[in-house]
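Repro:
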Amino acid sequence: MSASSKKLAFLTAAVAAAVLYPAQAHAYVGPGAGFAVVGSLAVVFITFFLALGSLISWPFRTLRRLIRARHLRGPSEIKRAIVLGLDGLDPVITKGFMEEGKLPNFRRLADQGSFKLLETACPSMSPVAWSTFATGVDASRHNIFDFLGRDEKTYFPILSSTRITTPERTLKLGKYRVPIGKPSIRLMRKSRPFWSVLDDCYIPCHILRVPITFPPEKLKNGVLLSAMCVPDLRGSQGSFTVFTTDREKAGSYTGGALILIEREGNVVRGELPGPPSPFTEGHEALTVSFEAEIDEFDDVVAFDFDGNEFVLEAAEYSDWLPLEFNAGLGVKVKGIVRVYVTSVSPHFELYVTPINIDPDSPAMPISEPSMFSQYLAKLQGRYATLGLAEDTWALNERMIDEKAFLEQTYLIHEERERMFMNSLAKNRSGLTVVVFDATDRIQHMFLRYLDDDHPSNRDKDHEHHKGAIEDLYVRMDELLGRVMRQVDDSTLLLVISDHGFKQFKRGVNLNTWALENGYMFAEGNGGADGGATGGSGSGAGGDASGDGPGNGDGAEACDFGAYCAPGEGASAVGEYLRGVDWSRTKMFQLGLSGIYINRRGREAQGIVKSDEYRALKRELKEKLEGLVDPETGERAITSVYDTEEIMDGPYVENAPDLIIGYNIGYRASWDAAVGKSSAAVLEDNVKSWSGDHCIDYRLVPGVLFSNRKVTADRAGLIDIGPSILDLFGVKIPDYMRGRSVFRQETNKDGTSGNDA
């Protein structure tokens, strides 16, 4: 190989670090949830000359902007707008604490302006709702309908927000396989966010951790730090690692991995698996090593973790530790983790957070401009970059306890506060938007403490952290007080949430319902009547109750990681819809709200004809809205929405055919969310994740606090962006479906229809 060819290969290798091949890692599916479908790294080069050129041209660009801005804007009623997003803040809980005098700043803001219910998106989950907030349109116009979509060719789930493609060609260089070509990372959210419209008018915009902003979109006059759907270095939406000397804990866990290690005297050693190698044929995991010396007398551990030397007490988090994974060919991939000693004796146990992208040396674009993440790291130290950084699955799987989860969540929250306060100080005449996640994550995991009868309380503490929700709301009130002290008469202050919260007591599996009612069939099921009646053929039928296998081997029918309950036989469908007989299946459930029809001409093996399609949707709607929980006597589903009837945007074809509106207390079960059947249609939710909002969107509105009087009869997330544009004197674009809540009139009696 010539010298020039070698040089080209090494340069390509640097760019090829843009792609880390798919890393299988189970991650939870839920609000603040994700799915491991992609693994990717992109090397971001920041050059001195670009910065120098920007500095030299600044006076000329500023003058040009001032001239152009006069033609793009009308008179402005505000100088600055601040949007404080508190994900999941619930209006009922908020109002209760306000009436008890525990939230004085929220009360003061309500008295000064307005406190109203804020209509959420349909369906009511974070990626959909925050996309509606950003763009001022519904899901059929911004193209985000869930955390997960499905590949129509394979039926396999795909992350709804991002597409990452890798170069197909490779160059063989000794033991290495160097990708040739440019990798691609695309944001699948459509429509323009309202801050891009402001940016066109040269209004400074600081956008901090708003969901569904990865990869970051360009801003001419602002900064952005991405949030939800930023992956970890393994390519998942957050995979923890636990090292333990306790062999009784060996087994499989959702959301992460448990690794057994040996103790030699007072020393343990291990290797932390990181991203897959981009340059080897098998894409083996790159690793870094650690050594820990245990002092049982003082209950402390001395670490050398990839060159980071420090001492931790039991039940104490480390600072962020920089890690460096050597991919070869001179390419090093950098990440950060925190570690937490959960036990010193009799067994040593170490929890390691998901490996976050290092903001000081990002392996993938996470901010706009690219140097903004580094600026923040230099300013305040390293910080969490993972889109869903609070490790709810580690608590679900009891790898950490409630105390450790709360501490981790508030450490991340404090990082976000520092970013926000810095932005408020720097951006005095534009838009600042921030979204805090603690309100969502803590309510997901601690709402059970407000209901002694919650099935999630079984075998868990339900007293010690009974005040966690109140403490959370009081802490947000204190944050609001600090923000209000920086607000003057020319500033608009909005506090919003994307949805509220309700208890999640019972899971509903509509794949199991479909098997029992003849709408879905499992491979190998010989019965002509399907899973509901069993069969006499060679498959393992079983009846609706799962009693007894047929002539076949039920275990064989449940391969590829499928879950087979005792006696379930071939009626089972495995994770990610593995094991479905598509030649007879009419519908399937995937994600947290969607029912898909196996439609001919659309799905690869579709069987439902066009003339049967609408009749089948009506039939399913009628039956599912009548689904009653035999344990409680309550309707599990309040409404089934036909997306063709409630949405008319250009991307409605990508939506589920039906959106399920679950009743309070119900949600898609954990198995159903990943396209899996289970032993029963309805079952108790016993995980720590005990609160949720993926139900009928009409039952979980968010909150809207404003220091200006809201005059609209109704207000929704879809209206927030247009309202801000209007106050800045910027014309609301025709594509937006929202309108200003400060221009519309109230009811004739002077009241508003959704005052909180």
